[in-house]
Amino acid sequence: MLVSNTIQILVGDSRQLLQRIQSGTVQCCISSPPYWGLRNYHHPDQIGAESSPEEYVANLVAVFRGVHRLLREDGTLWLNVGDGYARNGGTGRSGPNALVGNTKKLIQQRNCKVPTCWGLKDRDLMGLPWRLVFALQEDGWLLRSRITWIKKAPMPESVKNRPSNATEEIFLLAKNPSYYYDNQAVREKTGANLKNYWLLGPDASGAPHPAVFPRELARRCVLLGSRPGDVILDPFSGSGTTGVVAAEANRKAILVELNPAYAEQSRLRINRDRQLTMIS
Ligand SMILES: C[S@@+](CC[C@H](N)C(=O)[O-])C[C@H]1O[C@@H](n2cnc3c(N)ncnc32)[C@H](O)[C@@H]1O
Description:
Number of strands: 10
Distance between the termini: 26 Å
Bound molecules: S-adenosylmethionine
Oligomer: single chain
Number of domains: 1
Order of helices and strands: EHEHEEEHHEEEHEHEH
CATH class: Alpha Beta
Radius of gyration: 18 Å
Largest sheet: 8 strands, mixed
Number of helices: 7
Structural class: alpha/beta
């Protein structure tokens, strides 16, 4: 699916489609993969619906091994991934079968059981972002930064025995120690070097996708990690936020999305944004 000469959307499973792209053509990969057991993206091949979190980590390591091949030698990967709790199943309007927003949690559609790995117990925070990033480190990636995304409008949680979650991780990984990073592209308001906590609110994107990340998150990664004209990749592109931002910043983009309905929505969104930019 070609949106323009500069933005391409590939519809299908990243594990296969990344193999069709030429090695060493991508400068920067910016992506938020599905979180384990959270949302249902309505496709039998979706990542995130594995029966164990170990399998989930292994699947993502395989996808990002494909990304590693596509990156230029000075390329980077910016990875946003969320955590979750190990739970034993239940029913009812609260507890593990509750509705979160208007999206039914994947783990709640089966009678979920605490995964039998990592010594997990009922109600244990799984530490998935770190488990994934440690697995990526073992697979050859260089881990350079952990950025904390502080959410201006986090999802409310009715918990009384711990603080509510209001942050997520964004990891900066590189293929090699000497990677492209434009430290002048995004600075603190004072002019100081950008810090590793980003206070960001959700956009009113209007995208009918349940897990859109803020444009400002993608914008910072694009500007820090690439030059005008470079190719940006998002192997889990959802509503196409990475593509929208790449086009605005005069970068090219390759987006991969499994669900054809989301791919079509992102095509319309990117076209609409490009037209608005041309008018204004
Ligand atoms: C967290 S969302 C990404 C949202 C995106 N950052 C945005 O701003 O819209 C993850 C996306 O990955 C897609 N996905 C799941 N498994 C996939 C796979 N095997 N290959 C490609 N895409 C997949 C889902 O359909 C979902 O749209």
